[in-house]
Amino acid sequence: MSGGTGIPVFTAGTDESSVHGLSYVHGGAQLPSGRVALTVAADGRLRVEAVAGTTRTVRTGRLDLAVLNRVLGALRSGPPGAAPGQDAAEPGTGRRLTVVGLLPDGDASWDDATATPVPGVGRALEALAAQVLDPAAAGRLPGVLLALDEIDPAAAGSTARPAAAIGTVGGRAAYALAEPEQGFGLVALDGADPLGGSGTEAGVLPTALALGAAGGRELFAVGGADGAVQVWDAVSGALLHGTAGGEGAQAVTAGLVQGVPLVFSAGRQGEVQAWHAEDGRALGLLSVAGQGAAVLCHARCAGLDLVAAAGDDTLVRVWDAATGEQLHLLVGHSDRVTALAVLSLGDQALLASAGQDGSVRLWDLATGQPLAVLTGHSGTVTALAFLRTGGDPLLASCALDGTVRTWDVYTARALDGRPVARGWLTALAAVPQDGRDLLVTGDESGQLTFWDPETWTAVGDCAPGAGQDFPVNALAVGELDGRPVLAAGHGDGTLRLWDAAARTALHTAAPDGGPVTSVALCPAGDRTLVVCGTATGAVRCLDPRSGAPLSVPTSHTGPVTAVAVGAPDADGRALLASAGTDGTVRVREALGGAPLLRLTADPAGVTALAVGSVAGRPTLATAGPDGTVRLWDATDGAPGPVPVGALPGPVGALSFGLLESREVLVGGGADGSLRIWDARDGSPAGDFAGGGSPVRSIVLQDLGGEALLASGDQEATLRLWHAGSGTLLNEAELDRLPLAVAFGEAGLHVVGPGGAITL
């Protein structure tokens, strides 16, 4: 069990010998792979710092003490270390492990450059640091053992950057401009009249802007440093739709609410979001005072559909899912809540909650009154499940102490408790078979084991296969085509669906969004949908029969790098596309916000985005840090022709246009050069040399039968070419950074910090 000891975690510059905890360092800042420092305090507070060249990344969080105890156990049974400072080597590029105040034989240090090298546990610490730094990577550590803090964009150096867009507002040519510390605003190009905007208190750190139109309304879209995308009516200023910022959603639950299939999702911070399972329409928020949630649960009691949420703040909240009214605030746990389960009993229901304080608590969902506190586990309780065995219902719990315990629900009496695994038990589920329930456990090795709860004999298992031994982070039970099915989410991001009766694999979904952290099965008409949360916050929803993914309304899990409003699709819907440093592109209905598509365009991040129409179909263009440009069908995400030849990366701007009646795409590179491709086949159609500075803005437009190409670069230089011949017509030094350029009746408009100018 973890507890708040108040012992501080290591911070930069701290003397390792003065703080109780563990410190592990490997590599060096001068190496290509950089230097990584992992520190874990005695209370489980964790900090990882990576330095490579001039780039510094810091992540903090909390590690379950079971991990620290396992590491210390390995050190106690291995070769002893030297006293800190004794036989010390000069700081270098090797590995060094120091433990202060946690070993019975005193403080100790291991260093690869000395006679006491770092033992084998160092590899596990390296894997832990890598999992903390890159939540999208496959994780060997079960998700329940690690709780990361939300990244503060400002603290991480990911603050707002200036952004601009040109379009129309109220029928007038206008521009949108966002500047750090100044909010964002809309201004008319003819006369500089203010048309609306925000101050610095708006709560948005803009990183991308777009102006467009849909359904007869003019729209203003903003992408933020926290991954949020919000859309306003540019004329009235009314907020039309948007996603909350943060790191997406790690916890999900699902169920029928008044006959409608709904999904509820929550992340490390922010509120609980409700959305329609079949079409992804966002339906509203359930407030948790911005605290986020680690676990969610859907229930039905006395004719009401309920949702329960709990997490780091130790509280359990219960709402009426139909109205959003909070019914209960359950207080009792002394540490993070990690598991919830519900048992419906006619017009009554029991809620079980458990967590890092090792206790299991029972609550009357109708009244919110506590019923019992069940104790016996000596580690964090990781999962709960109610069982029907033919007699009275039972509650089963599993924990990091390796045991499963069962309890009489009515008397709160402990019935049995025994170790069933050598390692950590991470998930639990009850599967119906022959009129009673079998108990299924998931563990850190990735295996599912089926148990007869009356005899405690193993009656079967489901193993993922050789080389796929990543932990089971989540289990959910449902029904598909009249048969019980079991959904398992793993630490490598794989989602597996099993026939629970035959114990055979039905479907395997490849990783997408990092380790699966939660999973739910939702009945939706004649099908059952599988929904899961992931470590990066990307919610996945798929039809298990076909494996087809469904789009869901979640934010980017990093700063938004571009937003664009495109032409209507085949159904007449204008599209809003956004891209981010998380490497994904999200496509929504521009007017209503319904999610239509999510695709991973570049795992290294998307640096430029454009939306256009090619051969009559809505098309996306994306580019990334390596200079590669890609085309995608904006309706189904299918990759299009590959533009021939990469630009010097990162690509700073993309734009669709026409060149002598050909549909083309223009891109601008890090050296100021431009390239034009035929958008239908990807063949090159023109190259234009730059001045060596990254391109920030591009526009290609036909004026009186002549195609003109304009671009602005990071050194505030504007260049104008005759696109057909490649002739440079003009080059001008500006007094502002050209964030957006567009041709108008009065000339060429340029928008940058401070406002707009016309050339």
Automatic annotation (TrEMBL):
SMART domains xref list = WD40
A Pfam family per the record = WD40
Q: Where are the WD repeats?
A: 306-329, 330-373, 374-417, 486-508, 620-633, 665-687
Which keywords describe this protein according to UniProt? Answer: Repeat, WD repeat
Is-annotated flag, keyword Repeat?
yes
Look up keyword Disulfide bond and say if it applies: no
Signal peptide bounds: none
- What PANTHER family does the record point to? WD REPEAT-CONTAINING PROTEIN POP1
The identity of this protein, by name, is Anaphase-promoting complex subunit 4 WD40 domain-containing protein
Species of the source: Kitasatospora indigofera
The lineage, from the top, is:
Bacteria, Bacillati, Actinomycetota, Actinomycetes, Kitasatosporales
